[in-house]
Amino acid sequence: MEPHNTSAQRPETRSASTGVGRQTGTIDANAYMDRLQADNAAGRCFICELADEQTTREHETVAYRDEHCVVFFPPWPRLYAYCLLAPRRHATEVVSDFTEDDYLALQLRIHRLGRVLTEITPTERLYVFSFGSMQGVAHVHWHIAPLPPGTPFREQQFAAVDKPEYLVIAKAEVDELAERVGAGMAALAAPERDRWSGSNTGAKPSLIP
């Protein structure tokens, strides 16, 4: 199943970096869910494929990997710079499949990713949540979604992410976003003394190249 693009344009009321004014497409939700269930029944896990550096997938774009997690952009984002973070090992229980230390290591990376994303794009509210299904995408993952400033109240929260319309973003731009996210995550993973080069003046350096 492939979603189809539409030519509809959303009004240019805010910065294009928030996704407003971009071309949108519509995903065939029924076909998408059928494919997820078929992959699940066949024992295929696309997140495990993304976690493996030797595997290449056509649609998703990996931004960052370390010993604990993989960060990637979905092919059909509902919000600009919307991405997902998942443990590299296959886990299906969002709490009980992890030791406290492993869980805290993942949450640390979610915190870092949130900091990076909110520096990359204007954000009124950063959404962080874990969805999934034992009948679909069973591999534990978190959604990190920056809500653009000025989004009408009725278009916020679940309405912002649970809709068939997605932003059409050119591959070159997604690749650039992924590079910036990866660089920001790496900067935050560096030792504190290497990150805060402006500590004598109290200046806080940018996380994003």
Describe the protein's architecture and organization.
The radius of gyration is 18 Å and the shape is globular. The relative contact order is 0.17. With 209 residues, it is an alpha+beta fold. It has 6 helices and 8 strands, in the order ββααβββαββαβαα. Mean pLDDT is 87; it is low at 5-16 and 196-202. The N and C termini lie far apart (36 Å). It is 32% helix and 19% strand.
Topology diagram in text:
Blueprint (H helix, E strand, L loop, with lengths): L3 E6 L13 E4 L2 H13 L4 H6 L9 E5 L3 E5 L9 E5 L12 H21 L4 E5 L12 E6 L10 H4 L3 E3 L3 H19 L2 H4 L14
Helix pairs in contact: 3-5
User: Based on CA inertia axes, which overall geometry fits?
Assistant: globular
Unreliable spans are 5-16, 196-202
Radius of gyration: 18 Å
The number of helical runs is: 6
| Rounded mean pLDDT score | 87
Instruction: Assign the structural class, choosing from mainly alpha, mainly beta, alpha/beta, alpha+beta, or little secondary structure.
Output: alpha+beta
Strand content: 15-25%
Strand order of the largest sheet: 3-4-5-7-6
Sheet with the most strands, sense and barrel status: 5 strands, antiparallel
Q: Tally the beta strands.
A: 8
Order of helices and strands: EEHHEEEHEEHEHH
Distance between the termini: 36 Å
Helix content: 25-40%
Summary?
The chain contains 6 helices and 8 strands; from the N terminus they run E-E-H-H-E-E-E-H-E-E-H-E-H-H.
Identify the notable features of this structure and list them briefly:
209 residues; alpha+beta; 5-stranded antiparallel sheet; 3-stranded antiparallel sheet; 6 helices; 8 strands; 32% helix
